[in-house]
User: Fold Elongation factor 4 from Roseovarius bejariae.
Amino acid sequence: TPLSHIRNFSIVAHIDHGKSTLADRLIQMTDTVAERDMKDQLLDSMDIERERGITIKANTVRIDYTADDGQQYVLNLIDTPGHVDFSYEVSRSMRAVEGSLLVVDSTQGVEAQTLANVYQAIEADHELIPVLNKIDLPASDLDRVAEQIEEVIGIDASGAIPVSAKTGQGIRETLQAIVDHLPAPTGDRDAPLKAMLVDSKYDPYLGVVVLVRIMDGVLKKGDKIRMMQTGATYGVDRIGVFRPAMTVVDELGPGEIGFITASIKQVRDTRVGDTITHEKKQCAEPLPGFKPSIPVVFCGLFPVDSSEFESLRDAIEKLALNDASFSFEMENSAALGFGFRCGFLGLLHLEVIRDRIEREYDIELITTAPSVVYHVYMKDGSMEELHNPADMPDLTLVDHVEEPRIKATILVPDDFLGDVLKLCQDRRGIQEDLTYAGSRAMVVYDLPLNEVVFDFYDRLKSVTKGYASFDYEITGYRQDNLVKMQLLVNDEPVDALSMMVHRDRAEMRGRAMCEKLKGLIPRHMFKIPIQAAIGGKVIARETLSAMRKDVTAKCYGGDATRKKKLLEKQKAGKKKMRQFGKVDIPQEAFISALKMD
Ligand code: GDP
Ligand code: MG
Assistant:
C-alpha cells in the first residue's frame, strides 16, 4: 500500500465512554469481520478485561475502507490500554500512530482519563478528531460537551462528529474523517529497517507475537533482526497483520503496522518501545523515549493453604510469561510461610494478576499490604531500595528515607469539592492547582504514592458518590519522616502487617489498625493483646477478651444435627485462617486492617 493510502490511529477516551463499542462498529461497517464472527468488544479478548472494561495489551486491527473518492485506504487502529498503570505502554502505542479519535460521552463530558489520554496524544503530535458519542441518549448535550472540549482541552471542536456507537449513526462520517483529516505516515522504503516494538503477547502455539510499526525500510520473512535495546537477534518466522485474526502477509513496509513471530520464548525477552532493525544493515539510531518498565507497587502473595505453594509458583510463572512488567521472587515469611514478593505497575495491575490467579488457577491467596518502593539512605552513604517494610534496616543505621510522590488530577462536580480537598489533605497532599470548567472543578495535588495505593480511589468514589474521576503520574522521590510500624498479635510481630507510615500519622493509623484487627480476629480461649509499635515502642493497644461460652451452648435441647452443622460451619470458616503463634487470623484481616475510614 502506498503511504498516501495508509492512516494509523488510536482512540482516546475515558472508561465507559464507548471506545470498544466504537471500535466494534468501525470494524463492522467496513466488513472487516464476517457478520457471523462479529461479537461485542471484539478487541478486548481476555475475559477479565471484558468484565472490568479494561484493556491491558495493545490490540490492533487493520480495516480496509473505500473512501468517498472511490479509492481503497488501509486504516490501522491500535487500541491501547486506557488505565494510568499502563501509561508508558500507552505512550509507545501513541508514537506508533499519527492521529486519534477523541471520544467523549456526550451525556457526561470530559473526565480525568480523557485528559490524561489526550495529553499523551498531543505529546505524540497527533492530529485529533473529536467524536461525541451516545447521541441516541436523551441526556446527550452536544453543545455543552463541544464547548467543554474547547475550554478544557483547548482544541477546536466545531467539526466534532456526533456519533452513536450503539445505533451506528455517524460511523461512516468518522471513517471518512480519518481519511480526510489524519496525516498519512511518512517513511523511507530504501533506508535501513527501523521498526518500533509496540507490544507483545504470548500465544501457546506461536510463542511470542510481537506487534510492530515500521518507520523505515522493509521487513520480510526470513530476515535476521536485532532488538537494539536488548541486543538479542532473531530470525523472523512469520509476518502478518491483524484483521483482527492473524493473517500472514509477505512483507511490511514503511507506515505499516503488523506482527512478527521469531521463536521468542517469553514476553520478558521483548521490551515495549525497543527498536527493531536488521542485523546486517542496522539503522543509525534507536527510536527515542525507550524506558524499561519498573514495578512501583509491591505486595506478598501467599497461598491460604500452604500445600498449594507449588501450584502458585506455576500460576505466577505462567502469568509472567505474558507480562514483562510483573516481577516476582520467592519470599519466606515467619507468619505466612512460603510465598512470593511481587511487583506491579500499579494497584489495578496488582488486582488483575491477583484475580487471575484466584479465578483461572483456583488458588486462594493472602495478599499482604501493598507497599511502594522506598529509598532508604544509610548512614554510610549507601542507598537501599526497600520493597518490603519487613526488611527495613535497623533505625540506628538509617540516615533518612525517601518516598515516591505523584501528581494527581481529580475532576469533580462543585458539590463534592470540599470532601475531595479534605480527603487529599488527610492523605498528606499539597494542593498545586484548582480550576473550574463549568460546574466542575479540576484539582491537582502532589501526594505521596503510599497514601494512594491502598484505598484512595475507593474513598474518592465513595465521598463523591462516583462522580469524581482520577488520574495520576509519578513525579519523583522526596524525603519525609517515615518509620516502620509493626503489629504485634499476642506479643508476636506479624510481618505481613508491617507498614511504612509517616511519623505524625503513626498513632492514628496504629490505633485504627488495632481496633480493626480486634474486630476481625475471632475470640480465642485466652485473652489476646493487639499492639502497634515503632522500633519496640508500643504506640497503640487493644485487647481481645477471651471467649467465655462454648459456641454450641445456645443449641439447647440437644439438637444434634444443628450442633454438628454449627461445628462444621466453624471448621469451614477456619480454613480461611492462618495461624500466628497460637492465634488464628482470618485471611481478609490483612487487607481490611489496612483500610482507613
Ligand atoms: P469503553 O470503556 O470506552 O471501551 O466503553 P464501552 O464501549 O465498553 O461502552 C461502555 C458502555 O456504554 C457499554 O454499556 C456500551 O454498550 C455503552 N455505549 C457505548 N456507546 C454507546 C452509544 O452510542 N449509545 C448508548 N446508548 N450506549 C453506548
Ligand atoms: Mg473498552
Q: What stands out?
A: The longest strand covers residues 398-413. The pocket of magnesium ion (ligand 2) is lined by residues 19-20, 44, 53, 55 (CB under 6 Å). The first helix runs from residue 19 to 29.
